[in-house]
Amino acid sequence: MYLQVFKGCAINIKVGKDEEFVFDFFTIVKCFLKYKPDVCKKDMMAKLLKLIPNVFYTDIHTGLNLFVDCLGFTVVYSEPENQCPFYIVKRDDLQVHLIEDEEFALKDRPEMRIATDDIEGLYQEISAKQAQLLHPNLLKIKQQPWGLKEFALLDKEGTCIIIQQP
């Protein structure tokens, strides 16, 4: 038996005098990945699934107002009695950690972007129930020169969320 690799992507395997098999390289790799994935994972990078931000507040209720009352997230976990109250909120595939910690809240005010497939619907939903959270610099949906439609939210602690749609 011998193995011969041709230029390009073909591999020729001769088993006996009259038995010869030709495989394309990609079929062999696909088969190898299917039956020996642990061997291949050593050199492959892990897939990153989500980015889950921590947002710090001096008053956790400001964060709950923005994410739960305004954006429609649901509290899926909470420790309200903790020294630093902590909430995990979720909507669709998005998750955010809200933490009350004055020291960290005063150091940084985040700006985040949320992509949607229905910016008009989300704008109507938000403006009907929490219009006071619409950012004064982007109160209405605006078509940006870079191709996105956007509007923004700003809470009283300075957390800015830009809603966007291509």
Notes on the protein architecture:
The structure is a single chain. The strands form three sheets. The protein has a four-stranded mixed beta sheet with strand order 4-7-6-5. The longest helix has 12 residues. It is elongated, with a radius of gyration of 26 Å. A hairpin with a 6-residue loop joins strand 5 and strand 6. It is α+β, with helices and mostly antiparallel strands and 166 residues long. It has two domains: 39 residues, no CATH class; 112 residues, 2,3-Dihydroxybiphenyl 1,2-Dioxygenase, domain 1, CATH 3.10.180.10. The mean pLDDT is 86.
Give the helices and strands, then pairings.
Layout: E1 2-5, E2 10-14, E3 20-24, H1 25-35, H2 37-40, E4 54-57, H3 60-70, E5 74-79, E6 86-91, E7 94-100, H4 102-107, E8 111-115, H5 119-130, E9 142-143, E10 149-154, E11 160-165
Parallel strand pairs: 4-7, 8-11
Antiparallel strand pairs: 1-2, 2-3, 5-6, 6-7, 9-10, 10-11
CATH-derived architecture of the largest domain:
Roll
Report the C-alpha radius of gyration, rounded: 26 Å
Enter the CATH topology name of the largest domain.
2,3-Dihydroxybiphenyl 1,2-Dioxygenase, domain 1
Number of helices: 5
Strand order of the largest sheet: 4-7-6-5
Order of helices and strands: EEEHHEHEEEHEHEEE
Largest sheet: 4 strands, mixed
**What structural class do you assign from the helix and strand content?**
alpha+beta
Q: Given the C-alpha coordinates, what overall shape results? A: elongated
Overall tally of domains: 2
Q: Helix amount, in percent?
A: 25-40%
Low-confidence stretches: none
- According to CATH, the homologous superfamily of the largest domain is 2,3-Dihydroxybiphenyl 1,2-Dioxygenase, domain 1
Per CATH, the class of the largest domain reads Alpha Beta
Number of strands: 11
Beta-strand content bin: 25-35%
Mean of all residue-level pLDDT scores: 86
End-to-end C-alpha gap: 56 Å
